[in-house]
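Hi Q.,

Before the meeting this afternoon, I wanted you to have the zinc ion prediction in hand. No need to reply - just skim if you have a minute. The sequence and ligand are here:
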Amino acid sequence: MKMIFRIIFLSLLFSWVGVSQAEYKCFYGNLHAHTDYSDGVSTPDTAFAYARDVAQIHIQALTEHNNGGSFGGVSYSITPEHYQNLRLIADTMTAPGRFVALAGQEVGSIGSSGFGHINIWEAPGLWPYNNTDLLGCYSWILEQGYPAMYCHPDSSWNSNFNDLYYYQDYDRAMDLIEVINSSSLYEDAYFRALEKGWHVGASANQDNHCKYYNTYTGKIDTIFDWGNRVNYYGNIPLTGVWADTLTKPAILEALQARRTTAMEVSPADDRINLLLSVDDRYQGEHFIRQEGEVKITIEASAATSFKSLYLYTNGIPADTFNLIPASNQTVWKLDKSIGLGTVYYFVKALQTDGDRAWTSPIHIDGVSEKSPVVTWPTPIKNFARIVFTPLPGAISVKAVIYDLSGQKIKEITGSQPDQPIGWDGKDARGRQVMNGVYFIRLEQRSATETRTSLGKTMVSR
Ligand SMILES: [Zn+2]
Ligand SMILES: [Zn+2]
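Predicted structure with the ligand bound:
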């Protein structure tokens, strides 16, 4: 009852609310931009006000460079004093229900020895930068506990986050990846990050600096465009953030939950709502369930019509919905069967004018009563996730791996009690185990109960 009232109330309050059945609304944001606090122009106050009043978006982040960058011998990295000032300005400019201003930092380097650029929002302080230490950066993000994003993940650069190598221990550090921004399309990197195992959501941003080299005059032009920058494809990249309210805590929670849609918008009022749900779970979620049937619902609406929707299963566009005639509002429902192991779904939408949008993925780990502990993939080559049914209220989980003769091979403690455990196919001494069958004993503990479950897997290289 309360929920229904809230939905009706919010629908009346915000005319831009799209899909209304869901408990979340789509707020539009630009999560990557600069001012002269680093290498852009103008002030944070001007940038936030422009995004709010001229571009009329709901969320604007200023992610000033904190990576020791310099131009003409002069450093443009944000100073600790400026960063604290930026945080104060962002808090002052945030008006719940109207606008959320985020203070952020862009770390790393796209030079040959760097690891790429990462944005971190709202951390209390600056990373003591070291542009070559990717794992140090991941650990720092985990310690801070604030959302982070891979910026412009260009796979042709050798500084591409160690080619997006997947580290199980740092999985929770990274929340989003830019699928598209003002300079290029990075769809392949988004797909590859998911394929490698990262649980990252889709984002599209503008990386505004607001200064452009004019080839005719040889001078720098200034065009203020925080929130409405048009990219080379003639579109405005925006991130749709699905949250229950437009407040800073709700937006930060949504970013960490990866409840996002990346989109290109043209014309400017053609903002896209694209929401994926599996039963009552939304894009960005990762959960474990018994194998069996699920209902997938895809809701799409915008000002311009949609031509096609694609449901990707484990990175492959396995299902297509062509809208005949094209329509600017649709609901596509599918039934899917969840088997043992991990499956992930995401949606790509194509409008009649060529604009695209991508949802974040939903990851599902399928288990059964007969097989309460499984590995994905099976057989294992180099890396597997040990998937299990979580014990309610679990406080710890541990997997012990045995070979066929019953000899203990390795013991791995899970980093989170309700999440799969990674295994690199190595024994306790770091040697690759031999091909063959292995048993897994899983021990879960809650305050009141200890549960032991058994599973079996196979290594084949
Ligand atoms: Zn950058
Ligand atoms: Zn940037």
